[in-house]
Design a protein that fits this description.
The protein has 130 residues and is mainly α. The chain has one domain (8-119). The protein contains four helices and two strands. A two-stranded antiparallel sheet has the order 1-2. The longest helix is centred in the C-terminal third of the chain and has 33 residues, at 87-119. The chain binds zinc ion (ZN). Residues 25, 27-28, 30-31, 44, 46-47, 49 line the site of zinc ion.
Length: 130
């Protein structure tokens, strides 16, 4: 259980908001969390924190869907009633803007949930320490 042992070695940790905004390691705030955009690295390149403890599950996707759905629909309605563009403008505009915003938002939400998991020591329940 060296992975979860590592997760219990708590030192100073950076603010979850800062770590989330910058997509940095939740312990040192220096090393990056992701490579290729949203792929999680195996460990922190600065402090060596093992990222095996990380399990955000579907959390970031759910938040992204709810937030982005609200924002994009609102923007689409504003564009429609302000400018009344033809339908193809909506398809082209939101077809590009939505995935772009989703990528940015998912990166931020994933990083902030990882930082919160770290700060709050959230992990799978177990009956006894082994
Ligand atoms: Zn680190």
């Amino acid at each position: 259980m060296s992975g979860s042992e590592n997760a219990h070695e708590r030192g100073q940790s950076v603010s979850p908001i800062v770590a989330g905004l910058l997509a940095r390691c939740p312990r040192c705030g220096q090393g990056s969390l992701f490579h290729n955009g949203l792929m999680l690295k195996p460990a922190c390149s600065k402090c060596g924190l093992d990222y095996k403890f990380i399990d955000t599950g579907d959390g970031p996707a759910v938040f992204a869907i709810l937030i982005l759905g609200f924002v994009v629909l609102g923007l689409a309605l504003i564009v429609e009633f302000r400018f009344g563009p033809p339908l193809w403008v909506h398809v082209a505009l939101w077809g590009v803007v939505t995935p772009l915003l989703a990528f940015i938002l998912l990166r931020f939400l994933k990083a902030i949930l990882i930082a919160l998991q770290w700060v709050n020591k959230a992990e799978e329940g177990r009956l006894a320490k082994d």
